[in-house]
Amino acid sequence: MPCANGALERLLRSLVDHEEEFRELDAAAGDGDLGITVRSAAVAILASLPKSGTAGSTSELLAGIAHICASTSPSTFGSLVSRGLSAAARALGDEERDELSSLLVALEAAIAMVQRRGQAEPGEKTFLDALIPALEAAREATSLTEALPLMRLAAIIGTEEMVSTVPRHGRAAWVGERARGIPDAGSVVVIRALEALEGPGVKAWDPAWRPSSVE
Amino acid sequence: MRKIMNDPKSFVGDFLDGLLKAYPRDFRSVPGFPRALTRVEPAGADPKVAIVTGGGSGHLPLFLGYVGQGLCSAVAVGNTFSSPSADAILAATKASESGKGVLFLYGNYSGDGINFDDAAELAGDDGIETATLRAADDVASAPPTAKRSRRGVAGLTLAYKCAGAAAAAKYSLSETAEVAARALSNTRTMGVGLSPTIIPEAGRPTFELAEGEMELGIGIHGEPGIRRDEIGDANQIADVLLDAILAELELNASSRVTVLVNSLGATPEEELYIVYGRIADRLAAAGVVVHRALVGRYATSLEMAGCSVSVMALDDELTSLLEAPSYSPLLRLY
Fold it and tell me: In this structure, how many other beta carbons lie within 10 angstroms of the beta carbon of residue A87?
């Protein structure tokens, strides 16, 4: 699979642009460092991307990104994303696959690793609740182009289903009842990433949540 | 934002640079790993268990202030409120171990757990034996039925002190780990926040409190606590914190304890002593003997106002370990 560096760049730039949204969501239910975590990793990855199309395999690319996440953003989210991407890179290996098969193999491996290292189950209001529905939606598609909008919508539905629940994992779990009504910040990162991957014309999801009067 | 800093993005690197310049006799960074610091060992020091800790920045003197003689051997430093990398933890581990094994002693946060576990695996590949203990002393962060998911806060101070003394006294790795585990399981903490905290890189408060409001059960990352209440007077605050702790510690008239009253950053020592005065009276009335009290800044959340109270139930061994000499330029211990 050739590296779609254009899409990756778009994704990373979009994550940088959404720094404040991630920060606000995380501050409302966690400790407020998610925006910084995501921005600093995205900036470091952008700086590492080769300017021309001389990149190696997708597996090598993902392994490189995993390494950058682990060293620049070793927060909980950054660490889990890093371990997930490493697992995806190992699962992809050198084997030739079409784009959709590569995506499925990578995402399955990443989700399994995130679940293992984060010791979280689906339904505990973590970013697994966006990722797992996205994977299931991708399995129904026949091409990558068809998969991306299905994945985005599935991630939105998965995230929205958890909004009214109380998180059961990580720092947000300590907030308990007061996190009810706040979308999971990590899931929103997944949604923003999928929106950017799909293309510039996608209408951004509105979480219908606004931070209280923090200025 | 009223902060004294240069580029917010280099906040952690800048403070580490100044700290290393301030205490060149005490701390050293590991070559090639600016986020891994070790204590400066006296020449000819005998091999002993190394204690490696680590965590996010923004909590001074936690975590790196606990690196010192009779305390931790090395620390991995993360970004503000964010875990250190596994690479930095591994570097701290390799630089401080002397063949007797390494105890990883840190707070129970998922990011730290992931990175310390990876470092433990990599250290194992290099033939370094490790044991891991995570502090989970904050009673406000989960009910007693879910103790293992609680976060680690100021109670770490007492565990560092006991484990550090055990390592200095040439306890084996398993013995040192056993001491640290007992210190942790005998310790409970609860805190109250009176003002929010501002992550330098974010530049905005993580939450807001109305005038006259306090956040009960607050953690050391500015994360909200369990409930908001009107700010009471010092005695009322001391009572709420102590009651939550005593509900779990099962102290009796023959118990001996150490009490730690900790500022979350902005609260001055005068106020801490007012809180301690009430706690001392309450414990005395219950017949509980306070062996020692520590009052000051031990685990902070940047400029947050507020305090936490920790109580550790003592046995003879923990008492003598707490009495052992120790030194770090950032701490006032026994």
Answer: 22
Measured distance CA(A214)–CA(A55) in Å, rounded? 43
What torsion, rounded to 10 degrees, do the Cα atoms B197, B202, B203, B209 define? Answer: -30
Which candidate, B104, B185, B198, B70, places its Cα nearest to that of B137? Answer: B185
- Out of B39, B150, B182, B221, the active site residue is B221
The first and second tokens of residue B237, run together, are: 């605050």
pLDDT tens-digit profile of A84-96? 999 999 999 999 9
Q: What percent of chain B has pLDDT over 70?
A: 99
Residue with tokens 């033939």: B127
Q: In this model, does residue A3 exceed pLDDT 60? A: no
**Alpha-carbon gap, residue B197 to A23, rounded angstroms:** 14
Omega prior to A22 cis, within 30 of 0:
no
Q: How confident is the model at residue A215 (pLDDT cuts 50, 70, 90)?
A: very low
Instruction: Kindly state the tokens that stand for A30.
Output: 């966690």
Cβ-Cβ contacts under 8 Å for B81 (sequence gap 6 or more)? A31, A32, A33, B56, B57, B58, B199, B221, B222
- Structure confidence at residue A25 (pLDDT): 93
Task: For chains A and B, count residue pairs whose Cβ atoms are closer than 8 Å.
Answer: 111
Distance from CA of B275 to the nearest CA of A (A): 25
The answer to whether residue B59 is catalytic is yes
Contact A118 B114 (CB under 8 A): yes
Q: How far is it, in rounded angstroms, from Cα B214 to Cα B233?
A: 11
ipTM of the prediction greater than 0.95, yes or no = no
Q: How far is CA B128 from CA B115, B131, B173, in A?
A: 16, 10, 11
Quick one: angle between helices A128-139 and A185-198, nearest 10? 40
Per-residue DSSP letter, B296: E
Residue A172 pLDDT: 66
Of B307 and A167, more confident: B307
**Between chains, do A171 and B208 touch, taking CB under 8 Å as contact?**
no
